[in-house]
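Hi everyone,

Forwarding the result from last night's run.
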Amino acid sequence: MHTLPSMPTERPSGCPFDPPRELLEAREHGPISRLPFPDGHQGWLVTGFDLARQILADSRFSSRRELMRHHPLIDYGDIEVPEAPPGEFLLMDEPRHGRYRKPLVGKFTVRRMRQLTERVEQITAEHLDAMEQAGPGADLVTAFAKPIPAMVICELLGVPYEDRDRFQENIDAFLGGEAGDDELIAAYAATQQYLAELVAAKRAHPTDDVLSDLLDGDLTDEELQGMALILLSAGFDTTANMLALGTFALLRNPGQVAALHADPASAVEELLRYLSVAKQFFRVALEDVELAGHTIEAGTTVILSLSTANRDPDRFPDPPHPRPAPPGRRPPRLQPRHPPVPGAAARPRGAAGRLPRTVQPLPDAAPGRTLRGGRPAAGDGRHLRRQEPARHLVTRRPRYQSTQTASRARVATCNAIDKPAMVSMGSRQMSTPGRRRRGAAPFP
């Protein structure tokens, strides 16, 4: 039986999109390995695709927060982990989980997703216009990847326009991963306070948004506030990371840009597999379970490394490289058993086919080279210059790491952009697997 000495977090040098080398080596020994935790707990690490998918669908493995007493990077000591607050259903099992998720599923109707798709495309185009007008050189994260999901969440929740700047500032501080402890706690408290006020306002004066639609049931204001927080925390960081990293991956793999044009939906799905921005999920065995010839004892924590399982050579012909499936076929990839926003309902159907302009190639991103291209209009003469190589930064805040993601990655600078391709990516990122919020207390 293979055993890792500890949970690896460092990515291999020169391979910013790959999981830590130790995780890939662990999978070579089999789909499951032993993993000791800092507090002495003997857990398990799953790196195989089929086994991870089996566990995600198995009700004998729990997502309940109060059972998440062990973390692979942090010793919590004697801290008693409370159950998830009302409405925050990502770390709940049935029947509590279903009480919140089922009514939410019904609110993502075809009509709403059609409207949202059009709005996402408009928001995306506006931000790319602003980047163009600002001149060569741009920080893709701050100018594009972060504000777009924040604005879409505002649309979903019905945040009034006059409140959106303040709301987005708090979101960025709360979920951006760069705030100090005091700033993060203050932003979290301000976000919770605003969501409570927003729920009360919707109760008094409903509008056309998901939060108002949820008022027709028996959910309390506290439960609605928790559900709003889930939509916020699950939809912001993963989408922002996906937009930035997806662009960076295309710049590093220019041969895949043609696949994006040929079948945007399949290409984006493959990027979701290749990048796996929601990298790890935790489960706790509720009873003794036999898996791959091993007994997982009741109460044992199991870590599912989705980033490694989504590189499983038994499932993917060339896992270290993005290879979109043939047109019309959706490539396999792992995601939670119940994503916070249901994939089939929440995905903006046909968004790629309704793009306002033909998807054009991303320009060559060789460092220091003048890049011509962008809009398909002839003779626009626009130049894009990479002033320095794209930098991939890994930022980790172990104290606030979630039970679903042990490390986080973001692109700091990416100057070469292409508007139509990014409109396609922006309009497809509505079902990215979610992350848990970071709270002030050091438990999952």
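Residues 221-252 form the longest helix (32 residues).

Cheers,
N.
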